[in-house]
Design brief:
Layout lengths: L1 H7 L10 H7 L17 H39 L11 E6 L10 H9 L1 H6 L3 E6 L5 H17 L18 H11 L1 E4 L1 H16 L7 H10 L16 E2 L2 E2 L8 H7 L36 E4 L10 H8 L2 H17 L2 E3 L41 H27 L6 H5 L5 H25 L16 E3 L4 H4 L1
Main location: mitochondrion
Subcellular location: Mitochondrion inner membrane
Keywords: Membrane, Mitochondrion, Mitochondrion inner membrane, Protein transport, Translocation, Transmembrane, Transmembrane helix, Transport
């Protein structure tokens, strides 16, 4: 009885299969795969999947928030782009300054930050912009100082305003250009840019408004330092050569005098003076007691992380782009809505809603302490000893280069095969190379003195009534 039951029991191969399983078996899939049951992965796989999924989810969330924040602020200002303009009207235009971050070879990092985080809101509001950057530290300060001196010369009637070589219809006048600049505003990206801007601002309104060619002044200074002077030759007694007296007028006959000593005319060309004299009257060259109101400033916080020690900050910033997007969008929105307040000068007490808290370490306070913690990220990025080392290396090798150039130019020796294939620089080229290097070295030293950590922002009491800052709009202005 029991043997009959065993024989009558169905075998696994004779079990009724579903149509889907039967179809998959005919495709060549091993039958053992259909008998497997799902189970949890191993411990290592669980760790790997949880970590990678968390990182990917955080990255996706951050980029989605970036798009949401940017779309939110763009929707607030896009109605301004739809407002019609007259046939002769121009859109609002702002000037964007971005100085070179100390220690970074890429001089355009500040403006890259502007283009990525601030520009999209300007584009949504149809606000035009002009970007100005400095290739080296101090270039921006020199440019701003020169522009202000040019403006002072024009206002004093010493220099005519610049005009287009081809007059165009409806060309704006000087007053219209200045009005558009004033209504547009100025964007300063980063604390280092604020330092250079204020330094150039103070120099422009304080120094003489003479047009100075820095390269020409440096060339005159280098020409008189003796680096390219000829080596002194041994002094020879003019009366005796090889033991024989030289023929002089007293030892020769009159006929020989006329042949050996022809008539010499005295030189009448005066020596050229290298001193610079100003042609501007003293009463016009005096710094003004008051400064006209300047375009309103927009201060955009910016920090550039470079170096191996700041890799953790770079990683944190990569996964937290939304904070930069929000900061740039809020700054652009403040400028577009034109909510203005006075510039908080040094030692000025203001409310917390108007300005960030003044530093408690005895610093300047007010807006002059804008983005102060950013200085710690480029502390030590540049040291004057680097320039001194490069200068010493160059001047140690200069005499040999100069001797080779003069020997080849005068034909005192034949050039080698290597010199034939790769001609060494001539004396003129060495002088130009030296001038270029000194311009760069001295510019780097002067620029570092402006932006180095701990250096105070340049300030003049005349700026108190001339500067204003874009501030975050109030809640009633947002609607």
């Amino acid at each position: 009885m029991s043997s009959q039951n065993v024989d009558s029991a169905p075998k696994p191969s004779q079990v009724q299969k579903s149509g889907v399983r039967a179809a998959f078996e005919y495709t060549g899939i091993p039958p053992s795969w259909f008998d497997k049951r799902p189970k949890l992965p191993s411990r290592n796989w669980l760790i790997f999947l949880s970590v990678t999924s968390s990182i990917v989810a955080y990255y996706v969330y951050d980029r989605r928030e970036c798009r949401r924040i940017r779309a939110d602020y763009s929707s607030r200002v896009e109605h301004l782009a739809k407002e019609p303009l007259g046939t002769t009207d121009l859109p609002r235009k702002v000037t964007v300054y971005g100085a070179k971050w100390p220690g970074d070879e890429d001089h355009d990092k500040s403006l890259k930050f502007f283009r990525k985080y601030v520009k999209p809101i300007f584009v949504a509001a149809a606000v035009d912009y002009e970007m100005i950057s400095g290739r080296r530290s101090g270039d921006l300060a020199n440019r701003i100082a020169d522009e202000i001196k040019t403006r002072r010369r024009i206002d004093a009637g010493i220099e005519p305003p610049s005009q287009s070589p081809m007059p165009l219809p409806n060309q704006p006048t000087l007053e219209q250009k200045r009005k558009r600049e004033f209504e547009g505003g100025i964007v300063l990206v980063g604390r280092h840019t604020l330092k250079e801007f204020m330094s150039g601002l103070k120099r422009g309104w304080t120094e003489s408004m003479d047009r100075v060619d820095r390269e020409d002044m440096l060339a005159q200074e280098l020409a008189s330092d003796g680096r390219f002077d000829e080596p002194e030759e041994p002094v020879i007694d003019p009366e005796v050569v090889d033991g024989e007296p030289l023929p002089t007028r007293s030892r020769l006959l009159p006929s020989q005098n006329a042949v050996l000593f022809p008539l010499q005319m005295p030189s009448s060309s005066p020596s050229k003076s290298t001193q610079y004299t100003s042609n501007i009257p003293a009463h016009l060259d005096t710094p003004p007691s008051t400064i006209p109101t300047l375009p309103t400033l927009l201060l955009v916080p910016f920090t550039n992380h470079i170096g191996f020690r700041q890799v953790p900050n770079m990683l944190w910033g990569f996964f937290n782009e939304r904070h930069k997007v929000r900061a740039g969008s809020e700054a652009a929105y403040s400028l577009i809505m034109s909510h203005v307040r006075s510039f908080a000068a040094a030692n000025t007490i203001v409310t917390a809603s108007e300005i960030q808290e003044s530093q408690l370490d005895g610093r300047q306070g007010g807006d002059l302490d804008f983005d102060l913690p950013a200085e710690s990220y480029y502390d030590g990025a540049y040291t004057p000893s680097e320039t001194e080392k490069a200068r010493k290396t160059y001047y140690d090798a200069l005499p040999a280069k100069l001797s080779t150039a003069r020997a080849l130019a005068r034909g005192t020796r034949a050039p080698t095969k290597e010199e034939d294939s790769h001609p060494p620089p001539t004396e003129v080229e060495l002088r130009a190379e030296r001038l270029k290097k000194e311009m760069r070295w001295r510019g780097d030293e002067a620029g570092w003195e402006i932006v180095k950590p701990g250096q105070l922002v340049q300030w003049d009491e005349r700026f108190a009534d001339a500067l204003q800052v874009f501030d975050e709009p109030r809640a009633d202005d947002v609607g």
